[in-house]
Design a protein that fits this description.
Blueprint lengths: L2 H27 L1 H9 L8 H20 L4 H23 L19 H22 L10
């Protein structure tokens, strides 16, 4: 891989890792608020305890995968899937599919409009796909040195 391509891959994967690391840390450090925000969404109440652990665990798995060369492609793929699912959810809310509009207080950028959440998550999906494609082009370790 040419050095500029390697640099692009490094920046993309680092940005994704930083995003998911922050999301993970925020959900753990501000756990009470995180659970309240989950409860204000359209999910059944019975799902909240599981989601409150599964989502942060997924964030952490993505961070760990992105940190090691052998996990970069799976990490970028999981990142793309999670961003895409979140974009789908934001799009459904923005389109008014749900009877009540859920609080837009969950996520990295609190109180971002639902159209803003949709754009942010679509951009994250695209960035993840770029990382997935570019990480597959080189054999050398990108983030792990």
């Amino acid at each position: 891989m040419r050095s500029y391509q390697s640099a692009i891959v490094s920046v993309v994967l680092f940005a994704l890792g930083a995003y998911w690391a922050y999301t993970f840390a925020d959900s753990i450090i501000n756990r009470t608020d995180y659970i309240k925000h989950l409860e204000s969404q359209v999910f059944p109440a019975a799902w909240i305890p599981g989601l409150s652990w599964i989502l942060p665990a997924g964030n952490l798995v993505i961070v760990l995968l992105l940190a090691f060369h052998s996990g970069q492609r799976p990490g970028a793929l999981l990142s793309a899937l999670l961003f895409a699912l979140t974009a789908l959810y934001a799009g459904l809310v923005y389109a008014g599919v749900f009877r009540d509009t859920p609080c837009n207080c969950i996520g990295v950028v609190r109180n971002l409009s639902w159209s803003g959440h949709l754009f942010l998550n679509l951009a994250g999906t695209v960035l993840s796909v770029i990382g997935l494609v570019l990480a597959g082009r080189g054999k050398e370790a990108v983030m792990s040195g």
